[in-house]
Specification:
Strands 1-2-3-4-5-6-7-8 form an eight-stranded parallel β-barrel, surrounded by five helices. Helix 1 packs parallel to helix 10, helix 5 packs across helix 6 and helix 6 packs across helix 8. It contains ten helices and eight strands. By secondary structure, the chain is of the alpha/beta class. The radius of gyration is 17 Å and the shape is globular. The longest helix is centred in the C-terminal third of the chain and has 19 residues. Bound molecules: 2-phosphoglycolic acid. 2-phosphoglycolic acid (PGA) binds next to strand 8.
Length: 243
């Protein structure tokens, strides 16, 4: 299966010029990769979308947005193809409820974007399974089998995201356990058996292979390491060797 590597730049780099330099470097690097066996998606902050979209050009990289904050029509006009829905920055920092996330997902699908829908528990304490299942059911409520199948699911445990104090990456085994839990929840409630899963949370060149080598993991969502061009290019190199 084609792997999906998503760069979530969040609010970095600090300036659009730095962002353009990063994009140029990544695009040049991607052109040197022998066969393009991956879907590569770059998600800059909203105000950078247009200029970064122009630079992406024919590189084969897809543009993604971090939210459907601006009108989804504007996103489609800027050649945005993917959009993060329910990222922890939205759910936990900006206070988006499951209902808001559900409405944003509806908007993204209506605009013809491919949603990368993020799920993740805040802590791994007792009760994480129920929390993850409840978040999954509420976020996907009302969607058809076909709509859910259009989404890529990102499992991002909040405690593993590098911007959180004491963050440490999940282990591949425990990430797969959580993905299976989401998969079973979706199968039980929505009768959907085909879903694809990305892992996100402190992914680096050192651990990316351990996640991508698992057959249950179709890709990674990379935050901090995606704005360090050397690290991100190394991640792409490693990912390109794993089929
Ligand atoms: P991280 O971020 O790779 O810096 O942990 C992942 C994310 O928040 O999408």
């Amino acid at each position: 299966m084609t792997k999906t590597i998503v760069a979530n730049w969040k609010m970095l780099p600090d300036t659009i010029e730095q962002a353009e330099a990063l994009m140029q470097r990544v695009a040049e690097y991607v052109r040197t990769l022998e066969a393009q066996t991956m879907d590569i998606v770059v998600c800059p902050q909203e105000s950078y979308l247009e200029r970064i979209g122009k630079l992406i050009g024919e590189s084969g990289i897809a543009l993604g947005a971090q939210d459907v904050g601006v009108s989804s029509r504007e996103l489609a006009d800027a050649d945005v193809r993917f959009v993060l829905i329910g990222h922890s920055d939205r759910r936990w920092k900006a206070g988006d409820s499951d209902e808001i996330t559900n409405a944003k997902l509806k908007e993204a699908l209506r605009a013809g974007l491919t949603p990368i829908v993020c799920f993740g528990e805040r802590t791994r304490d007792q009760g994480w399974e129920a929390a993850l299942a409840a978040q999954t059911v509420a976020t996907l409520a009302g969607f058809t089998e076909g709509q859910i199948a259009q989404c890529r699911i990102a499992y991002e445990p909040v405690w593993a995201i590098s911007t959180n104090p004491d963050a440490k990456p999940d282990t591949p085994a425990s990430a797969v356990q959580s993905m299976n839990h989401i998969r079973e929840t979706i199968a039980d409630h929505f009768d959907v058996s085909q879903t694809t899963y990305l892992y996100g949370g402190s992914v680096t060149p050192d651990n990316v292979a351990s996640f991508l080598e698992r057959s249950e993991v179709s890709g990674v969502l990379v935050g901090g390491a995606s704005v360090r061009s050397d690290d991100f290019c190394r991640i792409l190199t490693i990912a390109s060797t794993i089929v």
